[in-house]
C-alpha cells in the first residue's frame, strides 16, 4: 500500500479541487486490485499502518495523456544535419523525416523510446499514444518500444505507420508488424498479465496508402479488434490527393474500407470537410489535435475543431509536455478567433483518458470509475503537483491556472499502474543512463542521416 497524505485532489472533468485528504493506492503487485486507488479519506495511516508514504501536501491528479506522438523523433532535438530548405510540407517529409526514419536501427529505436518515455513522466504524462516508423527495421520494432515503456513504466498504445512509399513489400511488412504486436499483447493478457502497452493498427497517411494496403489494414482492424491510427489531411495535399486518385474524401476512404470505428485515432484532420467530421462523430472516432506541430509545419489550422465530438491533444513528436501543448492549443485557437476557451481545452486534455480507456478498460472490473479520475477503483496513474498558487485554485478556474500559470515544473511525484516512477522529482529508473545513451545514439542517427 502506498499513501499520499493531506493532498487536495484535482479533477479535470468535471473540474473540482477537494479539501485536503489522504489517498491510499494498491501497489502494482497487490493482487487483482493492484494498481488502483484503494481508499480516500482522513487519517488513512491508522487504517494502513504499514503503508509507504509517497508524499504529503500539494495537489494530486490523474496522470496526463498524450494522444498522438512519434517517439522516433526524440533524438531529432537540435539536429545537426545538412537539411535542404523545404518550400512545403511534402518537401519537409522528404528532406527531413523520411531520411530520419530510414536511418533508425534497433539501438537508435530503443534509445529514442526510452528518452521519450522519460520525458513524458517528468512532465506528469503517464500515457503516450505512439505512431512509429522505421522502414529499415520494421519486424519486431513495436516490441522494442514496448520494452522501453515497461522499463521506464509508462502506459501507451503502439502501432507501426504502414506506408507504400518504400514499396509493397514494405507495406505488407508494416501491416504484419501491427498484427504480430496485437497478438503479442493478446497472448500476454491470456497468460494473466496486464501489459502497460496496447496495440493499434498504424498507417502513415492517406496519400501513402493504396486501396490494396488500406484493405489489408481494414482486415487487421477486424481480426485484432483494434482501431486504425493514421494521419489524415494534415496538409491540404492529402485531402486533394484522396479526391483526385481515389474519388473520395480521406475519411470516406477509411469508412469505405470498413476501417473507421470507435477505436480509430485520426491525426490532425485540418482539411477535412464537415461531412467527414459527421462521419467520424457517428463512428465515435478520435481526432488527435497537435497545435504546436501544425504551427511549426505551417500546414494551417483546424477551424472545424469545435465540431469534432472526440478531440484529444497530441504533441506529434515535439516532446510530451501536455501542459505546454494545452497552452499552445488554447492560444492558437484564440488567435483563430474560434469559439472555444481554456475550459473547453481542459475537456479536450481530459478526453485523452477516454482514448486510453477504450484500449485498457478490459483490465478493470466492469463499472470501474475509468481513467483520468482519482476515485476508489480507478487506475492509479497519478501525479502529485507542487503548486503554491498566488491566486485561489478551485474547480472553476483550473483551466485558467493551466493556461496562465501551472507547468510541468510543478511535477513532484509520478505513479503509473500503482508503481512509483518519479519520487520527489527523482526518477526511480536510470535516467542519466538513458540520457547518456540517447546522446550517443543521436550522434549515430545524425551521421546515418547524412548517408541517406
Ligand atoms: Zn503525427
Explain what this protein looks like in three dimensions.
This protein is an alpha/beta fold. Strands 1, 2, 3, 4, 5, 6, 16, 17, 18 and 19 form a 10-stranded mixed beta sheet that branches. It has a 5-stranded parallel beta sheet with strand order 11-12-13-14-15. The chain has helices at 44-47, 89-102, 106-122, 141-152, 168-190, 211-224, 236-246, 250-256, 274-283, 291-297, 322-335, 342-360, 398-404, 431-450, and strands at residues 2-12, 15-17, 21-25, 37-41, 52-56, 59-62, 64-69, 125-130, 155-158, 197-199, 201-205, 228-232, 265-268, 286-289, 311-313, 382-385, 411-416, 419-423, 426-427. The chain contains 14 helices and 19 strands. The longest helix is centred in the middle third of the chain and has 23 residues, at 168-190. The protein folds into 2 domains: 2-63 and 377-427, Urease, subunit C, domain 1 (Roll); 65-361, TIM Barrel. The structure holds zinc ion. Residues 68, 70, 131, 231, 267, 316 line the site of zinc ion.
